[in-house]
């Protein structure tokens, strides 16, 4: 059976926080959750654009400022969410940047690694205790088929200070998303409530490609009707990971078409490198040190 938006269960009484929800995949994810009855928080960098997006949605939708390039902003957003929401059912780490020119976040991290991984790592750690007591709660992190590009976590030059390749840096950040999910799930297992799941949208026609080099962007634009899918379809793997009752912690969802480029969401497998337990744990430790965020679930719980 093809999984479609019609199979999203009712979400009445659930609170969903979606990062990067003012456009593209995040917008479609938030819109459908709100239509199914969830109270949705659009966690966005530009609150003016967030309010415009919220006005286009039906249901209980609010806006919270969140700039993932700043750990101060992440902490402020988490504090605001804690003050306004005593519980969270769904945390969807969707926001991201892709193929940016070499630049750093406000905290000095390489932009793609800092935004896509470290910002979401910190946000999740600061909010996780609001999810842990909630039956059926989930942390869904959006990765990419790009995690296979030069698939490695470059601990010897994590911030790409010696050399920089925008595609390889993006691949590292998306590989980190998966490794974070798998290690988080291992730590959550002893709690029996919250699970961590990952998803990817295939190749979706969104604003994310705006930083793609022109030599690549032009042919992709011409071939878009054939090799891409609209954001409405690209959001389906995330929505399935977030709402399908059959989903299990540690799973990864993507399109079912050739090369996982487009299609209906199904259970998929990530690269062999993404399952390296030693690297997952090392990345976790480094991420804690870089962000200063410690999670309320530790390795002892994971081994229990």
UniProtKB/TrEMBL annotation:
Extract the signal peptide range: none
Q: Which UniProt keywords apply?
A: Oxidoreductase
- Tell me the GO molecular function terms: oxidoreductase activity
Q: Does this UniProt record's set of keywords contain Oxidoreductase?
A: yes
- Top-level taxon in the UniProt lineage: Bacteria
Similarity section:
Belongs to the short-chain dehydrogenases/reductases (SDR) family.
Q: Any idea what this protein is called?
A: NAD(P)-dependent dehydrogenase (Short-subunit alcohol dehydrogenase family)
What InterPro entries does the record tag this protein with?
A: NAD(P)-bd_dom_sf (IPR036291), SDR_fam (IPR002347)
- Name the source organism: Micromonospora taraxaci
Q: Pfam families from the entry?
A: adh_short
């Amino acid at each position: 059976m093809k999984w479609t938006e019609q199979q999203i269960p009712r979400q009445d009484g659930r609170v969903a926080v979606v990062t990067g929800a003012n456009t593209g995949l995040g917008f479609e994810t938030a819109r459908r959750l709100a239509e199914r009855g969830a109270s949705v928080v659009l966690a966005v960098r530009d609150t003016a654009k967030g309010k415009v997006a919220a006005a286009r949605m039906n249901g209980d939708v609010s806006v919270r400022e969140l700039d993932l390039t700043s750990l101060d902003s992440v902490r402020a957003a988490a504090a605001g969410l804690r003050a306004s929401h005593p519980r969270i059912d769904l945390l969807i780490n969707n926001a991201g940047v892709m193929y940016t020119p070499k630049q750093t976040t406000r905290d000095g991290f390489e932009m793609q690694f800092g935004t896509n991984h470290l910002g979401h790592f910190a946000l999740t750690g600061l909010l996780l205790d609001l999810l842990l007591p909630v039956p059926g709660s989930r942390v869904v992190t959006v990765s990419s088929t790009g995690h296979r590009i030069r698939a490695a976590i470059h601990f010897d030059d994590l911030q790409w200070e010696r050399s920089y390749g925008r595609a390889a840096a993006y691949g590292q950040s998306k590989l980190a998303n998966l490794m974070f999910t798998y290690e988080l799930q291992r730590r959550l297992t002893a709690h029996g409530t919250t699970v961590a799941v990952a998803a990817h949208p295939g190749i979706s026609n969104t604003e994310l490609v705006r930083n793609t080099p022109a030599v690549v962007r032009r042919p992709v634009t011409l071939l878009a009707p054939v090799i891409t899918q609209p954001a409405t379809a690209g959001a389906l793997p995330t929505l399935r990971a977030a709402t399908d009752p059959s989903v299990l912690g540690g799973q990864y969802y993507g399109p079912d078409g050739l090369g996982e480029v487009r299609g209906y969401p199904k259970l998929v497998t990530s690269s062999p490198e993404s399952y390296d337990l030693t690297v997952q744990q090392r990345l976790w430790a480094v991420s804690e040190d870089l962000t200063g965020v410690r999670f309320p679930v530790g390795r002892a719980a994971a081994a229990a």
